[in-house]
């Protein structure tokens, strides 16, 4: 699969999640986080850690062949999922290695697809 442009409309994300604009920019600055959010939006409510890591790797490998599923899994466990969990977007069951989408805003198909450009309304 070709690499997708992992863009998310910041204003819509802020409005739908209730996360501050500054924190949203910080979260979305990370490519792995953006790809993870896209995987969560496009998938079932509960996913295995392995499924998420493989889906994120599939999205990223076209541009960064050094990224491996193992490295992405490590980033998910130690950074991405704890951040998303801290904001109430997901619950990560570390024992079962399962991620459950908690935020209804991540289940709104297409709600975050439009990308706002600075100076455009």
Could you describe the 3D structure shown?
48% of the residues lie in helices and 9% in strands. The chain has 121 residues and is mainly alpha-helical. A hairpin with a 4-residue loop joins strand 2 (90-93) and strand 3 (98-101). Helix 1 crosses helix 2 and helix 3 (31-42) packs across helix 4 (49-60). It is globular.
Features:
9% strand, mainly alpha, 3 strands, 121 residues, disordered C terminus, 3-stranded antiparallel β-sheet, single chain
List the helices and strands and how they pair.
Blueprint: H1 10-17, H2 21-28, H3 31-42, E1 46-48, H4 49-60, H5 69-86, E2 90-93, E3 98-101
Antiparallel strand pairs: 1-3, 2-3
Number of extended strands: 3
Q: Given the structure, what is the number of helices?
A: 5
| Major β-sheet strand ordering | 1-3-2
Oligomeric status of the shown chains?
A: single chain
Q: Give the SSE order as H and E letters.
A: HHHEHHEE
Derived from helix and strand composition plus strand pairing, the structural class reads: mainly alpha
- As a percent range, the share of helical residues equals 40-55%
Biggest sheet, in brief?
A: 3 strands, antiparallel
pLDDT below 50 for ≥5 consecutive residues: which ranges?
Answer: 114-121
Arithmetic mean of pLDDT = 80
Q: Work out the strand percent.
A: 5-15%
What is the alpha-carbon Rg in Å?
14 Å
How far is the first residue's CA from the last residue's CA?
Answer: 32 Å
What overall form do the CA principal axes indicate?
globular
